[in-house]
C-alpha cells in the first residue's frame, strides 16, 4: 500500500536573499443535513467556504453537541478490550436488517464496536466469514472533529471507511489503480503565476506581504481530483485533511507538535546552498508495515508495525496535469538533505506528532482497512466471504460529506543567506491496497502464534452478535 503526494509544479526564480516555499492545501468537513462536523481541525461549510473549526457559529456548535451525543457508545461496547473481534459477514447482515426496516444505524455499527486499529485479519472458510480484530474502547467526539477512544485518544474505525475499502478491493475493473486524491494547479493558474513573477521585478522586503498575496491570487484556486473513492465520502476527507496537515507542518504554516520535527524551511535555512535551494520537493505518506505475517495456510494475518512513513522526492519539472510517475526525477538527483531530514524525523516521531494531530491516525486506520479489504478479496475465491450489501451503493449508502472542488493557494517564506526564491506547489495522496497485501511485505511466521489466535477468535457459542471480546 502506497500513499504518496501527486501532481506538483516547480517554479524557480532568483531574487535577493530569500528562500520561499508556497504550497496549496485542502480542507475537508463531514456534514449531513442533521449535523455539522470537521476532520483534522479544519472545516468547509456547505457553501464551500474554508474555515477553521474553532470559528463555528453558535448554531453550528449546537449541532456539534448533538453529534457528540450521538457518538456516545452503548454501555456494552464502552468497555475497553485488548482484542475485540468483528465478523464482517454478521456486520453486513446487521446493517442490511436495519436498512430493510428503515432504521438508522446505531453508533456501535457506525464506529465498528470501538475498534481503534486493525491488528489481525482471520479468514474462516467454514463459516464463510472474515474476522477483523484489534484493540477497542468507548469513544467521544474530539474538538478537531474526530471520534476518538476515551482512553487512548486514537480515532475509532468507521463503517463508511470499511465499505469504501471493500468496494475498491472487490471492484472488477477499477477505473483508478489506487485510492487517493490529487490537488492540481490549473493551466491558467500556472500561466498567470509565471506572468506575475516575470513582471515582479526587484523585491522590496518591506512589501513581502503584498507580494505573497499577489502570488496566491495569481496562482488562483487549485483543482481537486479524487481517485478510487466516492467524491462525497468520509474517506476522501481523511485523505485530503491528512495531506493538508503534512504540508502545513513541512512548510512552517503550523508549528510542529514536537521539537524533534523541524519544518523544511527552517532546515533549509540551516543547510542553505544555491544548488539545494533550487530543488523543488514534496512529501507524501506511504503505507509501510514492518511485515504482514501469516500462517502457512494464509488464513490468519497480522499487520505488524507503524503502517505509515513519510518520504520525499524532487518535484519533476513538468505540468501538474501532465500525469506520469509523480516520484520520478528526470535529472536523477536525490532529494536535498533538508527534505530527507524532515521526512525521516516525522516518520520516527510519527506517534508523538499524531497524538496532537489525530487525522494522521485516521490515515493510519485507512491503511489498515484497505489492507484488510484486499486480504478479504484475495481470500474470497478460496471459501472466504464476499460482501453483497456493502458493494451496492443503493442498498448501503454512505453518509455524505461536503468536499470542495477547489482550494486556494497559500505561501510562506524564510530569510536566509542565498540568492533564490524556491516555489513549490504540491499536494495529494495515493493508496495502492495491492502493495502491502501482496508478497513484498508478507512473512510466514508460525512462532507468532497466529494459528492459536485465529482459533481463539471464533465467535463464542450461544451468541449471534456481530462483535465479541
Number of strands: 22
Q: Could you name the ranges where pLDDT drops below 50 across 5 or more consecutive residues?
A: 1-38, 40-62, 317-330, 418-427
- Largest beta sheet, briefly? 7 strands, mixed
Give the terminus-to-terminus CA distance: 29 Å
Structural class: alpha+beta
Helix content: 25-40%
Strand content: 15-25%
Number of helices: 15
Structure description:
By secondary structure, the protein is of the alpha+beta class. 33% of the residues lie in helices and 24% in strands. It is built from 15 helices and 22 strands. It has helices at 58-71, 75-78, 88-100, 107-110, 159-169, 187-200, 208-219, 234-250, 264-271, 274-277, 337-348, 350-356, 358-379, 433-436, 450-456; strands spanning 6-13, 18-24, 31-32, 35-36, 42-44, 50-52, 81-87, 120-124, 129-136, 139-141, 147-149, 179-185, 222-227, 281-288, 291-294, 300-304, 307-314, 406-407, 409-415, 421-431, 442-444, 467-468. It has a seven-stranded mixed β-sheet, with helices on both faces. The two termini are 29 Å apart. The model is unreliable at 1-38, 40-62, 317-330 and 418-427 (pLDDT under 50).
Short description:
It contains 15 helices and 22 strands.
Secondary structure layout plus pairing:
Blueprint: E1 6-13, E2 18-24, E3 31-32, E4 35-36, E5 42-44, E6 50-52, H1 58-71, H2 75-78, E7 81-87, H3 88-100, H4 107-110, E8 120-124, E9 129-136, E10 139-141, E11 147-149, H5 159-169, E12 179-185, H6 187-200, H7 208-219, E13 222-227, H8 234-250, H9 264-271, H10 274-277, E14 281-288, E15 291-294, E16 300-304, E17 307-314, H11 337-348, H12 350-356, H13 358-379, E18 406-407, E19 409-415, E20 421-431, H14 433-436, E21 442-444, H15 450-456, E22 467-468
Helix pairs in contact: 5-13, 6-7, 8-13, 9-11, 12-13
Amino acid at each position: 500500500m502506497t500513499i504518496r503526494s501527486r501532481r506538483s509544479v516547480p517554479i524557480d526564480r532568483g531574487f535577493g536573499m530569500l528562500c520561499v516555499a508556497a504550497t496549496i492545501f485542502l480542507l475537508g468537513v463531514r456534514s449531513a443535513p442533521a449535523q455539522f462536523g470537521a476532520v483534522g481541525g479544519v472545516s468547509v461549510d456547505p457553501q464551500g467556504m474554508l474555515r477553521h473549526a474553532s470559528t463555528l457559529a453558535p448554531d453550528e456548535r449546537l449541532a456539534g453537541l448533538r453529534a457528540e451525543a450521538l457518538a456516545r457508545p452503548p454501555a456494552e461496547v464502552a468497555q475497553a478490550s485488548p482484542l475485540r473481534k468483528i465478523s464482517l459477514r454478521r456486520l453486513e447482515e446487521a446493517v442490511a436488517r436495519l436498512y430493510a426496516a428503515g432504521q438508522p444505524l446505531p453508533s456501535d455499527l457506525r464506529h465498528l464496536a470501538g475498534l481503534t486499529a486493525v491488528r489481525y485479519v482471520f479468514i474462516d472458510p467454514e463459516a464463510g466469514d472474515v474476522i477483523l480484530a484489534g484493540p477497542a474502547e468507548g469513544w467521544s467526539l474530539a474538538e478537531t472533529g474526530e471520534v476518538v477512544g476515551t482512553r487512548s485518544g486514537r480515532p475509532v474505525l468507521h463503517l463508511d471507511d470499511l465499505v469504501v475499502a471493500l468496494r475498491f478491493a472487490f471492484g472488477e475493473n477499477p477505473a483508478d489503480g489506487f485510492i487517493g486524491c490529487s490537488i492540481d494547479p490549473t493551466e491558467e493558474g500556472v500561466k498567470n503565476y509565471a506572468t506575475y513573477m516575470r513582471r515582479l521585478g526587484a523585491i522590496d522586503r518591506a512589501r513581502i506581504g503584498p507580494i505573497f498575496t499577489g502570488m496566491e491570487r495569481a496562482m488562483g484556486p487549485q483543482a481537486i481530483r479524487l481517485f478510487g473513492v466516492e467524491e462525497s465520502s468520509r474517506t476522501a476527507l481523511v485523505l485530503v485533511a491528512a495531506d493538508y496537515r503534512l504540508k502545513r507542518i513541512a512548510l512552517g504554516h503550523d508549528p510542529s507538535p514536537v521539537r524533534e520535527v523541524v519544518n523544511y524551511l527552517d532546515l533549509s535555512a540551516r543547510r542553505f546552498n544555491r544548488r539545494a535551494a533550487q530543488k523543488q520537493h514534496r512529501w507524501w505518506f506511504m503505507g509501510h508495515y514492518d511485515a504482514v505475517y501469516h500462517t502457512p495456510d494464509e488464513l490468519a494475518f497480522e499487520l505488524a508495525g507503524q503502517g505509515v512513513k513519510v518520504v520525499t522526492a524532487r518535484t519533476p519539472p513538468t505540468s501538474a496535469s501532465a500525469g506520469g510517475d509523480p516520484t520520478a526525477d528526470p535529472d536523477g538527483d536525490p532529494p536535498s538533505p533538508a527534505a530527507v531530514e524532515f521526512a525521516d524525523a516525522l516518520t520516527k516521531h510519527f506517534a508523538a506528532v499524531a497524538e496532537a494531530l489525530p487525522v494522521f491516525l485516521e490515515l493510519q486506520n485507512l491503511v489498515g482497512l484497505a489492507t484488510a479489504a484486499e486480504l478479504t478479496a484475495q481470500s474470497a475465491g478460496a471459501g472466504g466471504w464476499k460482501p453483497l450489501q456493502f458493494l451496492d451503493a443503493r442498498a448501503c449508502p454512505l453518509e455524505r460529506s461536503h468536499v470542495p472542488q477547489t482550494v486556494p493557494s497559500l505561501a510562506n517564506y524564510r530569510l536566509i543567506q542565498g540568492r533564490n526564491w524556491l516555489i513549490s506547489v504540491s499536494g495529494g495522496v495515493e493508496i495502492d491496497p495491492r502493495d502491502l497485501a501482496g508478497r513484498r511485505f508478507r512473512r510466514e511466521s508460525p512462532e507468532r502464534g497466529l494459528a492459536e489466535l485465529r482459533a481463539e477468535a471464533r465467535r463464542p457459542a450461544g451468541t449471534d452478535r456481530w462483535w465479541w471480546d
